[in-house]
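FIELD: query
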Amino acid sequence: MKTILHTAESRGHADHGWLNSYHSFSFANYHNPERMNFGVLRVLNDDTVSGGQGFGQHPHKNMEIVSIPLKGDLEHKDSMGNTTVIKEGDVQVMSAGTGVFHSEYNKNKNEEVKFLQIWVFPKTQNVSPRYDQISTRDLAVKNSFYQILSPDKTGQGVWIHQEAWFSLGDFETGNTSTYTLNNSNNGLYVFVLEGEITIEDQVLNRRDAMGIWDTDLITLTTKAPSKVLLMEVPMA
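FIELD: result
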């Protein structure tokens, strides 16, 4: 097993007033040649957007874009004709493919919206753009990881054009869980949303992350009530 530790404090940070963003990998004005990506996982931004503010219409191309709201309501509009709102418990995916424009705004004037913005390199270029979102509320299982994304169009959760699997877990203190990779050639990026966990004697706290590869499985133990996001992705 090989690992790399990315503590919460080591992330890039940009405070634009209306947007407070932490970057796990190089993004915009934050550039770190040692933090460009983890396999095909290119972007993991931890964003907080002020009331009524947001990202105006902007383009994307040949990227799988996943949004996971953590608090509040995020309004999405795109050039495919979609106008939707996503909130905590939802997962949104957009395959940019040949090109798409979209905007994202905090729907509420008096409340922040917090969400994870995740970009994954696709395995196929220039696909037809597509949009989807689901609620994970019926998928959630306490003290166990549950899948929210995969490459399978008929599988549990949303799907993307990549051999990637995302899972969430909401654990009580003292829980031990094992995750077995779908492909032993993949890597696993573990991101602690809340709480405190240990993996291979390494303690991870809120917003810490660990990249893991050259293994078939991991075992995770919680030291406090914890919420964890797992992103299993090809390493090349």
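FIELD: remark
The chain has a mean pLDDT of 97.
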